[in-house]
Every structure is written in structure tokens, then in C-alpha cells.
Amino acid sequence: MITPSKKAQGISYAIREVVVYARKLEKKGIKVLKMNIGDPIAYDFDTPQHMKDALYKASLDGYNGYAPSEGYEILRKEIANREKRRNGLDYDVDDICITTGVTEALQIFLSACLDNGDELLVPGPTYPPYNLITAFNGAKPVPYATLEEENWQPDVDDIRKKINEKTKGIVIINPNNPTGALYSEKVVKEIVDVAGEHGIVVVSDEIYDDIVFEGRHCATACLTDDVPVITFNGFSKVYLVPGWRVGYALFSANNELKELKEAYLRIARARLCANSVCQLAMVSALRGSQHHIKEMVDTLRKRRDFAYKRINEIEGLSTAKPQGAFYIFPKIEKSVWKDDKEFVIDVLNNANVLFVHGSGFCPVYGKNHFRAVILPPIETMEEAFNKLEAFMKRRLAE
């Protein structure tokens, strides 16, 4: 028998791994309330019509072949315009590379940046591919603490302690997946300063930048003129097109990034290109009405408020209040389970509600938690949390 590589055998993606268990129930005709997937389209949100029209028009206009490896210049110019308009940042089109979602952006970057034995500091908990792809490249993801009692703000002192000669970069995910935290400008500036002291790159994942409920998101690259910052962003979340798979990487104008950017683009050329017609549609997304963003955020804020209140009413659970993105990360205060994955599977099998186990986002800082989305309508969340509360009462009474 031909065996898979050891690298492949180590791959596990918690967010979709739990879906396998849910499908077994669904095959038996059991309805599962899915609170696990960060896909607005899976609930009651929809892609703006002018973007759908632009996608169709792009195909009619003949954009059905390969795009340039770094992406169409017209889209890169619009992204540069957005950065100037929103963040006051000046990017040249050659500092921007269009990718197949943010996940490909980080895949290319980590392949370009990491060698065997290198280390990458990632927030604990974190979006799983940062751990998976780092390890896949023979490097080590090192989680740094984020403080639940401070709404999951990064612990800068912990970051300092964990930097060594093997550290290649520090990852910031802001707003954060899975906690929904919005990092303060002060904390992000402190992280950037630490990176500058040690001559390492900052990787800033800002895919949820316009989904903020209180305060304002500050782009990391705004906070420094000399520390190298690579920003990942995309259209999946804010523009409601997760299935279109269009993301991008932004390289701050810094000579220290020149060789890394060249390596990044070599890999980008080797993988051909991102989706051609979807890139053209994203030009319309940036140029067209942005009204859907406010509507979406207003809706999500109400759903966030409901989820936060309702979860804290359930005995045995508690949660910090998310300030951005569309996730909430409750703590299992009273546990009769061996770990949080057993908890999630037990909830699924006996309450028919699907969450994601917290240790799937970090075995250290995610354990004894679970992630839920705040995307469903309040009526759906109410049903899900009522079932969860009844389940908790039964288990804690046993």
C-alpha cells in the first residue's frame, strides 16, 4: 500500500473536521443546527447584486483565461486606492499580490519565509492554518498568550519572552478569529515595536477589518515607518463572497522585504494565478456601493449582543464580549468531559448543535473553550442556545 507523507498525516482542520460528525447525524435524518462555520452565505446574508452582475459581465467580456500571476493591475490599483482612502497608506501596485483567498496568501508567505527549525509566533488561540502550514513547512508555531480577562488582548510580555534566534515573525489577527477580539492600537503598536527591536517581520491578518462593533480597526502598517509588515486581506467576509476565493497580500515599502517579496512572487508564478473573473468583479466591489457593510455590521452587532447575553446565562459557561469579526469563544467553566472536543461531540450527538472545539485553535490557550458563530438569525441562535442550556443542565446534574 502506498502511504501518505508524514507531513500529510499531521494535518487536521478543526473547523471542518467536526462537520464529518454532523453529517453522520444528518444521514439519519437528524436536523443539526450549525454554529460552526464562518460563512455568512450559509445563513441569511447574500452577495450584493452589483457584484454578481460584475462577475457575469467579466465572463461575457472575455476574462476567462489566465490572469497575471500577481493579479490584474486594475484590481491592484483599486486595492491601493482603498488603502490610501481607509488607512492613509501608500502602496505601489507592485507591492500587492492577488491570491486565492487569504489562506493561499499565507501559504505562499510561509513557504517563502520559513525553513526547517524556524519559529513563528502566533496568537493563542489562532486561525488553524497558521499552525498547520507552519508545521507543514518544517517550522514550529509558537503560541503567545492572549488574555481572556482583557477581552483576549495579546500579552506583549509573553511575546517578548518567546522571541529567540529562531523566530522569523509575529502574526497578528485583528479582528481575531476565533475570539472576536479587536486589538487596541496601543497593544498592536507595542507588538510592532518588539518586532522592530528584534529585526523580524510582522504578519497582519486583517480580513475582518470593517466588521467592528465598537471602536475602530487600525491597520498595523499605519503604526510604523520602518518595521517590515506584510498584510493579508481579502473580500470573503466584508464583501460576502467566501466562495469566490479572492484575497491579497500587501508588502510595506521596506527594503528589508525585497528578497522575501521576490521569493513570494516566484511561488505565486509557479501556482499560476487567482480566479480571473472574480478578480474583475472585485473591482466593482471596491468601486461600487459599500452600504451592505453597515447593514451587515448593524445586524451582526444585534446578534452579538444576543449571543453574549444568552451564553452567560447558561450555567457552566461564560464568555468575553466580541468586538469584531463574527465569532464568540465561550469558556467551559464546569466540565464533566475529558476535553473540549469531547464536549463539542457530546453537544452535537445529544443536543444536535454543532460548535468547534477550542483546542482546535490552540491546544494551550484554546482548551476548555469552543467557538460559535454569531451569523445565524437570532431565532436560530435562540433555538441553539436553548438546546445547549438544556443539555448543560442534564450533564451537570448527572
Concise summary:
The chain is an alpha/beta fold. The protein has two domains: 6-46 and 291-397, Aspartate Aminotransferase, domain 1 (Alpha-Beta Complex), CATH 3.90.1150; 63-287, Type I PLP-dependent aspartate aminotransferase-like (Major domain) (Aspartate Aminotransferase, domain 2).
Protein architecture, described:
- With 398 residues, the chain is an alpha/beta fold.
- It has 2 domains: 6-46 and 291-397, Aspartate Aminotransferase, domain 1 (Alpha-Beta Complex); 63-287, 3-Layer(aba) Sandwich (Aspartate Aminotransferase, domain 2), CATH 3.40.640.
- It is 42% helix and 15% strand.
- It has helices at 6-9, 14-27, 49-60, 73-87, 101-113, 129-136, 156-162, 185-198, 258-270, 276-287, 291-312, 340-351, 378-397; strands spanning 33-34, 96-99, 119-124, 140-147, 153-154, 167-173, 201-205, 229-234, 247-251, 317-318, 327-328, 331-332, 353-354, 356-357, 370-373.
- An 8-stranded mixed beta sheet has the order 2-9-8-7-6-3-4-5, sandwiched between helices. Strands 11-15-14 form a 3-stranded antiparallel beta sheet.
- 46% of the residues are buried.
Feature tags:
globular; single chain; three-stranded antiparallel β-sheet; Aspartate Aminotransferase, domain 1; 398 residues; 13 helices; alpha/beta; Aspartate Aminotransferase, domain 2; eight-stranded mixed β-sheet
